[in-house]
Write a structure and sequence with these properties.
The protein has 351 residues and is of the alpha/beta class. It has helices spanning 12-24, 39-45, 51-59, 83-92, 116-119, 160-175, 191-204, 217-226, 238-251, 290-302, 307-322, 340-349; strands spanning 2-8, 31-34, 62-67, 97-103, 123-129, 141-144, 150-153, 180-185, 211-216, 233-236, 259-263, 269-273, 325-326, 336-337. The two termini are 20 Å apart. The structure holds 3-isopropylmalic acid and magnesium ion (MG).
Length: 351
């Protein structure tokens, strides 16, 4: 099992290193190969996604990714910004299906900013389309406008085929869970969303065992904080999914807890925590490694066919939380505050 290790920027390096230590304790055979990406790629090769890094990612069985982004590169033109690395990997490798589970661990119900009874037991899955929409739609740019000033523009677009394949991922996922899919769009305003809704509804005919509902994105943002337990699987486009998954992450107490998988049609995937590079705490050894460790568990399950090992990791994380270990982002009075390495060590010991 060859794994491309792309730590990236900021806390990416620390958390990925810890996740690899946990993987190393499973007694399985991995070959890890590391390459720079994001700001680190720009430093190493003048490109956020160096050709060698992309080649390694193509050839590996799975990719373990940290985070990209660093305020030092904010002034670069968009093609050189660290974010281009992750967008390029998603597009080049056709990683169109982004799975973002949001689960509330019993022990963390009071770390959420919502009341515990609203979030306790929450288990929802956001299925976000990842290679289309306004993120990639052309034309886009900044141009001179006839009124004198400049005009910025991006294009939201989805083909029927793109909508159909992500809808199928959502229905299949729902089959293994609560058998409900809520499709989120803005069909009261956007043509793209009208087509989205029509295609998802047509596709649902092949899944009579799954209950499909539709919701406008603004309402969904509100429902997620009003009553998040009404949801099982949410399927949505790239931009709405970006926003809603950050919102959903806070239901769980911390964005530092949420893993993700980005899969192609053959379940090859890139695995990353959904939080970013957190430059403000980088290098301090206080970042929460659990989202990355849980991303590694998703990698074991979805790309490496090691479901039993995935469960061992997930159970060890639960046990670690039960035993009171907390990084600063999920700390509450009466628990034991630890740093990045100690948290990962606690998980490894409980495998
Ligand atoms: C995410 C991130 C990325 C996105 C950024 C870093 C380009 O916010 O994975 O959610 O917008 O998709
Ligand atoms: Mg995001």
């Amino acid at each position: 099992m060859k794994i491309a290790v792309l730590p990236g920027d900021g806390i990416g390096k620390e958390i990925v290193a810890e996740a690899i230590k946990v993987l190393g304790r499973l007694g399985l055979k991995f070959e890890f190969e590391e390459a720079p990406v994001g700001g680190a790629g720009f430093e190493a090769a003048g490109d956020p996604l160096p050709a060698k890094t992309l080649a390694l990612a193509r050839q590996a069985d799975a990719i373990l990714f940290g985070a990209v982004g660093d305020p030092r590169y904010d002034a670069l033109p968009s093609a050189r910004r660290p974010e281009q690395a992750i967008l390029g990997l998603r597009k080049e490798l056709s990683l169109f299906a982004n799975l973002r589970p949001a689960q509330v661990y019993e022990e963390l119900a009071d770390a959420s900013s919502l009341r515990p009874e609203i979030v306790a037991g929450l288990d929802l899955l956001i299925v976000r389309e990842l290679t289309g929409d306004i993120y990639f739609g052309l034309p886009k740019g900044i141009r001179q406008h006839e009124s004198g000033g400049r005009e910025g523009f991006d294009t939201m677009r989805y083909t029927e085929a793109e909508i159909r394949r992500i809808a199928r991922v959502a229905f299949e996922a729902a089959r293994k869970r609560g058998k409900k899919v809520c499709s989120v769009d803005k069909a009261n305003v956007l043509e793209t969303s009208r087509l989205w809704r029509e295609v998802v509804a047509a596709e649902s005919k092949s899944y009579p065992d799954i209950a499909l509902s539709h919701m406008y994105v603004d309402n969904c943002a509100m429902q997620l904080v009003r009553n998040p337990k009404q949801f099982d699987v949410i399927v949505t486009g790239n931009m709405f999914g970006d926003i809603l998954s950050d919102e959903a992450s806070m239901l769980t107490g911390s964005i530092g807890m949420l893993p993700s998988a980005s899969l192609d049609a053959n379940n090859k995937g890139l695995y990353e925590p959904i939080h970013g590079s957190a430059p403000d705490i980088a290098g301090k050894g206080v970042a929460n490694p659990l989202a990355t460790i849980l991303s590694a568990a998703m990698m074991l399950r979805h790309s490496l066919d090691q479901a039993a090992a995935a469960e061992r990791v997930e159970r060890a994380v639960k046990k670690t939380l039960r035993d009171g270990y907390r990084t600063a982002d999920i700390y509450t009075a009466g628990t034991r505050k630890v740093g990045t390495a100690e948290m990962a060590r606690a998980v490894a010991e409980r495998l």
